[in-house]
Amino acid sequence: MAVDAAAVRPGATPQPAEPLLRVAHVTKHFRAGVSGVVHAVEDVSFDIKPGETVGLVGESGSGKSTLGRVITQLVPATSGQVIFDGVDLTTLRGERLRQQRRHLQMIFQDPFASLDPRMTVGDIIAEPLVNFGLHDHKEKDRKVQELLRVVGLNPYFNNRYPHEFSGGQRQRIGVARALALNPKLIVCDEPISALDVSIQAQIINLLEDLQREFNLTYLFIAHDLSVVRHISDRVMVMYLGKIVEISPSEDLYESQEHPYTKALLSAIPVPDPKIESQRRLVELSGEIPSPLFPPSGCNFHTRCPIARVPGICADEDPQLQEKSPGRFAKCHFSDEVRTKV
Fold it and tell me: How far apart are CA 297 and CA 288, in angstroms?
């Protein structure tokens, strides 16, 4: 909820805006076989303010995309709350949930698989408008052409099919479809990972331009931390279904509070041979554990370079605590991360 300017007295300090999205203790488990349970997302909580871009990073299999789908209610949460614009989406069903989806859209990772190959681009972009009965036929065509123009495509390409476009153009079509209903929040699920590097920059710039023009709020899911730094106001780091660090973007790249974040950042190549040769790579042992059998205690302790095993790291799961203003980490030894790792 934005601050009511009329209610603020002259000289008074404006109160911060209420979160547009509040995720509270969200957990998502999947059944695996007869008695197995995949712990895809485990007790995740965070807020996103209006107009903010929050990056969500982590290795493949960490639960990023599942969390994005739970937020948009493409898959239901096992427990917890997803409060969007003051409404708990987890309590809604049927028409009430469908009406909320007008304001909450998603851009998918694969720009080809997310577009119906049997539909023209015009029909794909217009489908949300038709679904909610917002425009008549003539007005619908005008809106589709306007959306194509906004995302940098020829408005007269609306009669073409997805296979006639390049990967970058198809992702622009996906962006246009997400914009059709004038949403407040867009969940971007790795929207550039399947694209060439030069095209990635174009899509990132497009998303930033659209955010300024339409006052959008983004949850930007990615595994490329250099891209996340460029687009995000805050960054959340996810490991094996749990958020392990939350920090303002620039602060995160200056110093880290969690050893997993430090390892991820140390793996980013620097385009300067001198600097690159002097950098210290933080190597993690082994692979990310199976979410079927997550480790006890801190779920990162099996790969952590500063873990006390046996000891507190293997026995006790740390809480996500504020280590400094605006910075949260889920680690027993954050002080050592800043100084030693």
Answer: 15
Cβ proximity of 238 and 244 under 8 Å:
yes
Residue 269 has pLDDT above 80, yes or no: no
Q: Quick check: 22 pLDDT over 90?
A: yes
pLDDT digits 0-9 by tens, 300-310: 999 998 888 88
The torsion region of residue 135 among left (phi > 0), alpha (psi -120 to 50) and beta comes to beta
pLDDT range class, residue 340, cuts 50, 70, 90? low
Mean pLDDT, residues 26-31 = 96
Contact 77, 44 (CB under 8 A): no
End-to-end C-alpha distance for the chain, whole angstroms: 41
Alpha-carbon torsion 243, 205, 177, 60, what sign?
A: negative
pLDDT band at 135 (very low <50, low <70, confident <90, very high): confident
Q: Buried (b) or exposed (e) across 42-61, using 16+ Cβ within 10 A?
A: bbbebbbbbbbbbbbbbbeb
The per-residue pLDDT of the chain, averaged, comes to: 88
Question: Is-contact 193 204, C-beta < 8 A?
Answer: no
Which pLDDT tens digit goes with each residue over 77-132? 999 999 999 999 999 999 999 999 899 999 998 888 899 999 999 999 999 999 88
Q: How many CB atoms lie within 10 A of CB 195?
A: 18
Distance CA 103, CA 45 (A): 21
